[in-house]
Amino acid sequence: MTNKTLQIHIQSDSIPWEQISDGIRRKILGHDSDLMMVVVEFKKGSAASVHKHPHRQVSYIEAGSFEVQVGNEKKILKKKDCFFIPPNIEHGVIALEDGCVIDVFSPAREDFFLSKS
Hints:
This protein is mainly beta. The chain has one domain (20-114): Sandwich (Jelly Rolls). 4% of the residues lie in helices and 52% in strands. It has 1 helix and 10 strands; from the N terminus they run ββββββββββα. A 6-stranded antiparallel sheet has the order 1-2-3-10-5-8, with no helix packed on it. It has a 4-stranded antiparallel sheet with strand order 4-9-6-7, with no helix packed on it. A hairpin with a 2-residue loop joins β6 (65-70) and β7. It starts with 17 loop residues before the first strand and ends with a helix. 21% of the residues are buried. The model has no long low-confidence stretch (mean pLDDT 92).
């Protein structure tokens, strides 16, 4: 993950989108080994299926609305809302309309870089 020189000023337009699945794409923005920011765009009806990981995560809904599941609790969240996921807690989202989420992880998700290999 640290093969590149640490970038301080990041211009989103210079980073290509990575297609994650049908209707979901992401860009990995600022990161080092301890912290990572990722922008994720969803088409209406697409879902990040329920999963868990050892990273802390906080997600800010930049656009759209989502059904958000954290643990056993589901809520409808919309633009300007956010949610926090402690380590190893199951979570997932369903896009109720086209939308965008900004995810921040600690530590960084090294597995995101492996998917690009």
